[in-house]
Design a protein that fits this description.
Largest sheet of chain A: 9 strands, mixed
Oligomer: heterodimer
Distance between the termini of chain A: 41 Å
Distance between the termini of chain B: 21 Å
Number of domains of chain A: 2
CATH architecture of the domain at 5-121 in chain B: 3-Layer(aba) Sandwich
Low-confidence stretches of chain A: 172-179
Strand order of the largest sheet of chain B: 3-2-4-7-1-8-11-10-9
Mean pLDDT of chain B: 95
Radius of gyration of chain B: 19 Å
Strand content of chain A: 25-35%
Structural class of chain B: alpha/beta
Number of helices of chain B: 15
Shape of chain A: globular
Low-confidence stretches of chain B: none
Strand order of the largest sheet of chain A: 5-4-6-7-1-8-11-10-9
Order of helices and strands of chain B: EHEHEHEHHHHEEEHEHHHEHHHHEE
Shape of chain B: globular
């Protein structure tokens, strides 16, 4: 372990903020309750904490050689509870090297912040920290629209990056921070403020259970908070502090300092010194890309879709999954040395020239172009039709996949797409992940 | 192998929803008609090939030759179950022909049977694709979508329109009105086709063949023995090709989604053996595999009825209508007859045989001396083409 106070760098950071929005007003109207405030974001029916984590991590690692990542820490309180949904699978989908350290953090809303701190304090070699949540509260309650879905990923290491974490102000030494009481929270924030007096710290990226608390804490600290950004997505549990970090990094300028604080079952807080702007403003872009659902029922149908007892039970086979994992999750293919053809599916010989020898395993590009497509009206979906597209991958290879998150009229031949990891089905009660295309 | 075979007798059940009849009932009826025409009994059959593509849909009937033994009371002869997607019936015929030419037997029976309606349609092939395919690959693709992607590509590359697709369905339903064995015999209008529920863009319900029960059979003998029979039909040429694995078309970047290499390969072989060079000049009717409307148009080109990209012109000119220059699917095609998968290929052979015998009744093509049948199977990677000739 590096000494605790040795600055570590945040090399890259990215967020995944889903586009679907349910406002408290829409939900309250459907339930005959007085309209509440705010809104939450929610993921598509085919996304869970694992696929949200993938989306944030993939964005974070874009431009980085995945082979450089030496550890993966995953934090979530809503991680899919199935043997088929491990952090190892996420690592495979990200094509991280075999044999790296992988750990999962859960059980608490502080797990995201704790995983980040562990990585920052121990980061001699690059570690990827991903926190992701898909959160539900009982239907018809205010809480239902105060929690949210989202994910954030932070690549930590040494050397020059986006920001340095210069000192830890508070550590998780007490449990008295645990509170959803706004007045108590103000009191706690005042204690944080006393400890946080650092020169040049002008704003706070502070979170506590409850999306609106970011503002409360910032006010108690006498610092401006992000313009309600964290309120517009809902409280994303273990991912919330990392989302706030990404938001702050995106809205800072080089040379800025901000206070990052995660108050939940103890506290983690540090001063962050900003060196560079992230390559892309993924949090802001996600916040801007909003698709409000007009009816509460659409939200319920989307949430329940994967678990509904359907007439069709897709085939699941752990044996096939294990055998084809390189092709399915890692999205590797094979290039034939004899004829250069790229195969995207496993086969004993080259499908083009029949060569058995000299086939080289290669990572396939996750971007490509729509060759042709159709819209399937009789494939189960909360919002039919399901578009299917034949994708010619950049650098070779062809796949046929579902198109996610797109209106049928936007799917066209020649359209540029990116492959994203999504939940394909839960055949046999097991989550089954595969690639879908999203329009770029 | 040299020599040729002839059809001594052909049989076909009505195609439709036979809720009151079993798989073995249908097999028996088709075989009885074929054997009856040949003046033979079940005991005269030297060997048989039973084509059924999806036994899992038909409550496990058609898994092996045993189900034909039960249908006809056969015992002590070889019976082989054949399965090759929608080219199953054609493959049964091919194997029966080869056994005759190899001298294994003197009378061979090729049978195709499919019972699709013992289960609800959603429990049939669509469900099989979801429930038994690879857990990841192609999930979300139905049979209609598998060919919808061809229609989309052709709409861009060849000027095909949704109206052209509808016109195929209208034509074949019009033909089926004269075929009392067709599943759907009511004419449809282009407006009805276009307004029917979308299944897989741009294919609507009426661009798709229905789920149907049915059986067809042919009794085959060697050409030199054929003259003993009342109205034999020569199998002048057979072509059969498997062009790739199931995933081939969707994972090969050189595949153009305009046509099917397997059909072109099979047509070349069949035409070569039958010594025909111009199918429009040399044949008087063609039965093609219109499982979806777009497939009929693709078949025009792959069979050489017109040039590449010209299918819709041939259709718009009326050339493929009953009475046209080269009538296609005068039976009503799969769109109207239905598509009991294992039976379809032999149903087409039955249709062409009756036409060549001059026994096709209200839909008789005048002067029919030679006819062609074509099937594609799976994602278009399996194909069967036959050329049949009046003797």
């Amino acid at each position: 372990m590096a000494p605790a106070d040795e600055p570590s760098s945040i090399l890259a950071a990215a967020a995944r903020v889903p586009a679907f929005e349910l406002t408290a007003a829409t939900a309250a109207a459907a339930c005959g309750r007085p309209a509440g405030r705010g809104a939450r974001r929610f993921a598509s029916h085919d996304e869970d904490a694992l696929t949200l984590a993938y989306a944030a991590a993939e964005r974070c690692l874009r431009g980085t050689d995945p082979a450089a990542v030496r550890a993966l820490f995953v934090a979530s309180t809503s991680w899919p509870r199935a043997a088929a949904a491990t952090a190892e699978r996420l690592a495979a989908a990200l094509d991280l090297p075999a044999g790296i350290a992988i750990a999962t953090f859960g059980g608490s809303w502080k797990s995201g912040a704790a995983a980040l701190r562990l990585a920052l304090e121990g980061a001699r070699r690059p570690a990827l920290v991903v926190a992701a949540e898909r959160l539900d509260a009982p239907a018809g309650t205010d809480a239902e629209t105060s929690v949210g879905d989202g994910a954030a990923a932070v690549l930590v290491g040494t050397g020059k990056g986006l920001a340095r974490v210069t000192d830890w102000i508070l550590r998780a030494e007490t449990t008295e921070w645990e509170s959803e009481d706004a007045r108590l929270l103000s009191n706690q924030a005042a204690r944080l403020a006393a400890a946080a007096k650092r020169p040049g710290v002008a704003r706070a990226a502070a979170t506590a259970p409850g999306a609106r608390h970011s503002k409360t804490i910032a006010a108690a600290l006498g610092m401006p908070a992000a313009d309600g950004a964290m309120e517009r997505i809902g409280f994303c549990g273990a991912a919330h502090p990392l989302l706030a970090l990404v938001e702050a990094l995106e809205s800072s300028r080089p040379g800025d300092r901000f206070l990052w604080a995660a108050l939940a079952e103890g506290a983690e807080a540090a001063t962050v010194e900003v060196d560079a702007a992230p390559a892309a403003r993924t949090f802001a872009a996600g916040l801007e890309r909003v698709r409000p659902v007009p009816a509460y029922g659409l939200f319920l149908a989307s949430r329940a879709f994967m678990d509904r007892p359907d007439q069709r039970a897709p085939f699941a086979s752990p044996a096939i999954e294990q055998r084809d994992a390189e092709f399915v999750l890692r999205l590797h293919g094979e290039r034939c040395s004899a004829c250069r053809a790229v195969a995207t599916l496993p086969a004993p010989v080259c499908q083009k020239c029949g060569a058995r020898e000299g086939r080289v395993r290669i990572p396939l590009a996750r971007t490509g172009t729509v060759c042709t497509f159709t819209h399937e009206y009789y494939v189960p979906s909360p919002a039919p039709p399901v578009s299917m597209a034949v994708i010619d991958l950049d650098g070779g290879g062809r796949l046929v996949v579902q198109v996610a998150d797109a209106a049928p009229e936007d799917v066209r031949t020649g359209a540029r797409v990116r492959l994203v990891l999504r939940l394909l089905h839960r055949g046999g009660g097991v989550p089954h992940y595969y690639w879908k295309a999203v329009l770029e | 192998m040299s020599g040729r075979v002839a059809i001594a007798g052909a049989g076909c059940t009505a195609f439709g929803e036979h809720f009151d009849r079993s798989y073995t009932d249908l097999a028996e009826e088709a075989c009885r008609e074929a054997l009856g025409e040949a003046g033979l009994g079940a005991k005269d059959v030297g060997a048989a090939w039973l084509g059924t593509a999806f036994p899992d849909v038909g409550v496990y009937r058609g898994r092996s030759g045993m189900d034909l033994a039960e249908s006809l009371g056969l015992s002590g002869i070889p019976i082989t179950r054949v399965s090759n997607y929608c080219a199953t019936g054609g493959d049964a015929l091919r194997n029966a022909a080869n056994a005759l030419l190899a001298g294994e037997v003197d009378v061979a029976l090729a049978v195709g049977v499919e019972k699709q309606r013992d289960r609800a349609p959603q429990e049939s092939i669509v469900r099989l694709m979801v429930e038994t395919g690879h857990p990841s690959y192609q999930k979300g693709f139905t049979a209609a979508g598998t060919f919808g992607v061809f229609a989309v590509k052709r709409m861009e590359a060849t000027g095909l329109t949704r109206e052209d697709l509808a016109a195929v369905s209208v034509k074949n339903h019009e033909h089926a009105a004269r075929n009392d064995k067709a599943h759907h015999r009511r004419p449809v209008t282009a407006a009805q086709v276009l307004a029917s529920p979308m299944v897989a863009w741009p294919l609507t319900l009426l661009d798709c063949c229905p789920a149907t029960d049915g059986a067809a059979a042919v009794v085959l003998v060697r050409e030199e023995d054929a003259r003993k029979f009342r109205a034999p039909v020569l199998v002048a040429g057979i072509g059969f090709s498997v062009s790739s694995g199931w995933d081939g078309p969707f994972h090969d970047e050189s595949f153009d989604f305009i046509g099917f290499p397997a059909v072109r390969q099979a047509a070349k072989a069949a035409y070569g053996r039958a010594e025909i060079s111009d199918p429009v000049r040399d044949a008087q009717l063609v039965e093609v595999h219109d499982c979806f409307s777009v497939n009929e148009l693709i078949a025009y080109e792959d069979l050489g009825l017109c040039g590449r990209g010209e299918a819709q012109r041939l259709l718009r000119d009326g050339a493929t209508k009953f009475g046209g220059r080269i009538p296609v699917n005068v039976s009503g095609g799969l769109l109207s007859c239905g598509h009991p998968v294992g039976a379809t290929g032999l149903r087409m052979v039955y249709e062409v045989a009756r036409q060549l015998q001059g026994a096709a009744g209200a839909r008789q093509v005048p002067g029919a001396r030679q006819g062609i049948t074509q099937n594609i199977g799976g994602p278009g990677a399996v194909a069967f083409v036959s050329v049949l000739r009046k003797m």
